[in-house]
Specification:
The protein is an alpha/beta fold. The protein is built from six helices and five strands; from the N terminus they run βαβαβαββααα. The protein has a five-stranded parallel β-sheet, with helices on both faces.
């Protein structure tokens, strides 16, 4: 039995506070979309779904890049415009590999240079009486997008792009992996350092406020 083709899903995971009220104040909304709409639709279209939520001990960024590079298709959700999604879509486009674009009804516009693509709009409510039809419609869109792309990225045809990126052949090597790990450790150290500095500033500020309550000459508390 032939192995199923793969479809990597790129999408928002969390919701910016600015848009949270639109999504019923549910910060896990897109996780529900992933579980109840995207994965079932991808599987119905006869692809093996690869979730954007990394598991295990792999370096998250390395796993994302590998999936963008190796997957037969990428399902890209442009809802609630997200910088990470734009970045990942850019990598996939540079590799000249096919993408299937979707968005929800709350996202009125997608970037002008992508609006020429055939994208699918889904209902984000995920109501039980709607979800079956939503899965069916999205599965059809995924299948049509994959067939029409013929293994290539549609943006190349529309924009006349010529020079595509190429992926490195073979193992990236231990040195590269160690460098990536070291950069992540440095980032964590910087975050911890900033947190400690902020805590110290808060302590100094509290001490200063306490000192203002004490008369330095009589060493007695001032009257409130």
């Amino acid at each position: 039995m032939a192995e199923k083709k793969t479809c990597f899903i790129i999408m928002p995971i969390t919701i910016p506070e600015l848009f949270l009220s639109q999504y019923r104040d549910d910060n896990n909304h897109f996780k529900h979309v992933l579980e109840h709409l995207f994965i079932p639709s991808v599987e119905k279209a006869d692809f093996r779904a690869i979730s954007p939520i990394a598991k295990g001990a792999d370096l998250i960024h390395a796993e994302i890049i590998r999936n963008l590079e190796q997957s037969d298709l990428v399902l890209c959700d442009m809802s609630c415009p997200n910088p990470n999604v734009f970045f990942e879509l850019g990598i996939r486009t540079a590799l000249n590999k096919p993408v299937c674009i979707v968005k929800d009804e709350f996202t009125k516009k997608i970037p002008f240079d992508l609006s020429i693509l055939n994208y699918h709009e889904y209902l984000n409510t995920l109501e039980s009486w709607e979800i079956r039809a939503e899965v069916e419609n999205l599965a059809i869109h995924i299948g049509v997008s994959a067939e029409r792309s013929k293994g290539l990225n549609t943006l190349w045809k529309n924009f006349g792009l010529r020079n595509e990126a190429y992926s490195r052949i073979g193992d990236t090597g231990k040195d590269t992996k160690f460098d990536s790990l070291a950069r992540q450790i440095e980032s964590l150290q910087s975050q911890v350092s900033n947190a400690n500095r902020n805590a110290l500033l808060n302590q100094v500020s509290s001490a200063s406020q306490l000192a203002e309550l004490v008369n330095p000459e009589t060493n007695n508390l001032r009257n409130f």
